[in-house]
Write a structure and sequence with these properties.
Structural class: alpha/beta
Distance between the termini: 61 Å
Shape: globular
Oligomer: single chain
Order of helices and strands: HHHHEHHEHEHEHHEEEHEEEHEHHHHH
Radius of gyration: 23 Å
Strand content: 5-15%
Number of strands: 11
C-alpha cells in the first residue's frame, strides 16, 4: 500500500517527486538532484529572514494542527540559551503513512530541512524522533545522517559556514502517545512518555528545559523547496484559499481501489480525489463513510464529501478536519460500529493513563462499543457513550481522549441508525427454574 504508485496526471509531485527513485536516497544522488543547495543558501541567511520567508510562504504544520510554521519559529529568540529542534517522525496515527515514505525515499530532504530549520531558530542540535517500528526509514535516515557528517554538511562547521549543526536519530519504543510533542520530549530525556501540562510551552521550556521547536517530517521536508524557489512560488500553490498554501501528501487506505500516498495542491476537490485519483470504492460497492485526516478526526458521510475541498478550512466546513491527511475509506459492506470500536480500542491501548478521563473513558467506550457490535447492547448505551465522550473532551492534558471521543460522537451523530440496528428492540425474559 505504501509503495510508490504511478504518478497521477492530476497530482503535483513536489515532496514525492523522487519516491521510488533509489538513487535519490544517496548523498551523491540527492546532490545531483539539487540537494543541499537550499541549506548552503540558508546558512548564509539571517535566521529572522528565514523565518519571514517561511511566514510569507504560508506553510502550515503538516502533522495535524496546521499551525503556521514561520510563526512557530518566530517564538524562538536569540537569547544565548541552548536551543533544540525536534522532528516528530513518530508517525503512529491510524491511516497515516506519508512521513514514512519521505524517510524511505528522500532521507536527505529531511536532513536538509532539519538543518535549515535549526539555523532559523538558533538551534545547534536536532533530534529526529522516529517510530521504532519504522525499521527501513530508520536505516535510511541513519545512513543519510552519517553521509552528511562525512561530507561536512553537518557538524561543527556545516558546509564551511562556521556554524554548528548536529542531527541525532532517536528510535521510539512503540508508544503512540510519544507523537504528542511534550511526551516526545519526555521520552528523549529518558523519562516516561507522558504529556506535559502547558504552559510552559516548548518555545520557553522544552527539551532539557531549554527553548525548543517541534516540527513534523512533511513540514520540514517542504522547507528546502521554499528556500530554493521562494515564498511566492509556494504561496501560489493553492486552489482558491490563501490560508492553505502548498502541496499536501494524503495517505489513502481502506475500501478503495487504488490505495497509497498522493500529493495534491491544497484546495483539490475531495470527490474528484476519491473517484479519479484513488479509483473510487471496490467494484459493486459504494462509499459509506470517509475519515479524511487520520483516525482522530470526525467521520464524514459520502454526501459530506460531495462538495468538500482538501484544505484546512475546507474540511472544517465539511464537518471534519484535515489532520494528518490519512484518508480512511469505509464502504457499505462494513459494520461501521465495529470499525469505530476498533479505533476506540486502539486509543484505550495507547492511553498513557495519566488522566482519569482518558484512562477510564477510553476503556468504557471500547467495552460498550464492542458489546453493541456483538449484539448485546441496550438503547441506553448510546446516551451513555455520548455522556462519556462529553466528559473526555477538552478535559485532559493532551487530546488523546478527544481523539477517542471524536469518531464516536461523529459516528452517532451521522450514523445513529447503524448503532440502533445492532441493539435488539426487545429481549425475551429468562425464567430460572425454582426461582420465586
Amino acid at each position: 500500500m505504501g509503495y510508490p504508485h504511478p504518478t497521477h496526471p492530476r497530482e503535483n509531485a513536489v515532496l514525492s517527486q523522487y519516491f521510488g527513485d533509489a538513487e535519490a536516497r544517496t548523498l551523491d544522488g540527492w546532490r545531483a538532484r539539487g540537494g543541499y543547495e537550499a541549506l548552503r543558501t540558508a546558512l548564509a541567511t539571517d535566521p529572522v529572514e528565514l523565518q519571514n520567508l517561511v511566514k510569507e510562504s504560508g506553510l502550515r504544520g503538516r502533522g495535524g494542527a496546521g499551525f503556521p510554521t514561520g510563526l512557530k519559529w518566530s517564538f524562538m529568540k536569540p537569547d544565548g540559551k541552548q536551543h533544540y529542534l525536534c522532528c516528530n517522525a513518530d508517525e503512529s496515527e491510524p491511516g497515516t503513512f506519508k512521513d514514512r515514505e519521505i524517510m524511505r525515499w528522500t532521507p536527505h530532504a529531511l536532513v536538509e530541512g532539519c538543518a535549515i530549520a535549526a539555523h532559523a531558530i538558533w538551534a545547534t542540535v536536532t533530534y529526529i524522533y522516529i517510530r521504532g517500528e519504522f525499521t527501513e526509514p530508520l536505516y535510511w535516515m541513519r545512513k543519510a545522517v552519517a553521509e552528511a557528517y562525512a561530507a561536512g554538511i553537518l557538524g561543527d562547521n556545516a558546509m564551511g559556514s562556521g556554524r554548528r549543526v548536529d542531527v541525532h536519530i532517536h528510535a521510539g519504543a512503540g508508544a503512540y502517545i510519544c507523537g504528542e510533542e511534550t511526551a516526545l520530549m519526555n521520552s528523549l530525556e529518558g523519562r516516561r512518555g507522558n504529556p506535559r501540562i502547558k504552559p510552559p510551552f516548548p518555545a520557553v521550556a522544552g527539551l532539557f528545559g531549554q527553548p525548543t521547536t517541534i516540527n513534523n517530517v512533511e513540514t520540514l521536508a517542504a522547507v528546502p523547496h521554499i528556500v530554493n524557489r521562494g515564498a511566492a512560488w509556494y504561496k501560489a500553490l493553492c486552489l482558491g484559499n490563501p490560508k492553505s498554501t502548498g502541496t499536501k501528501l494524503f495517505s489513502v487506505c481502506g475500501n478503495v481501489s487504488r490505495p497509497g500516498n498522493y500529493e495534491v495542491t491544497l484546495g483539490f476537490p475531495f470527490k474528484e480525489f476519491l473517484y479519479d485519483l484513488c479509483g473510487g470504492p471496490p467494484e459493486g460497492r459504494r462509499f459509506k463513510a470517509i475519515i479524511p485526516g487520520g483516525s482522530s478526526v470526525p467521520i464524514l458521510t459520502a454526501e459530506d464529501c460531495e462538495n468538500a475541498v482538501m484544505d484546512y478550512e475546507g474540511f472544517i466546513t465539511a464537518g471534519s478536519m484535515l489532520g494528518s491527511g490519512g484518508v480512511i475509506c469505509i464502504d457499505d459492506r462494513q459494520n461501521l460500529v465495529r470499525q469505530i470500536a476498533r479505533l476506540a480500542r486502539f486509543y484505550a491501548h495507547e492511553s498513557c493513563a495519566q488522566c482519569t478521563q482518558c484512562r477510564e473513558g477510553t476503556g468504557w467506550t471500547t467495552r460498550i462499543l464492542e458489546r453493541i457490535a456483538d449484539g448485546g447492547g441496550v438503547p441506553e448505551d448510546l446516551d451513555t457513550l455520548l455522556s462519556i465522550a462529553e466528559n473526555m473532551t477538552g478535559k485532559t492534558i493532551c487530546v488523546l481522549s478527544d481523539s477517542c471521543a471524536t469518531p464516536v460522537v461523529s459516528g452517532l451523530t451521522k450514523f445513529r441508525a447503524d448503532f440502533e440496528a445492532l441493539i435488539p428492540a426487545s429481549r425475551s425474559r429468562v425464567t430460572v427454574a425454582g426461582a420465586a
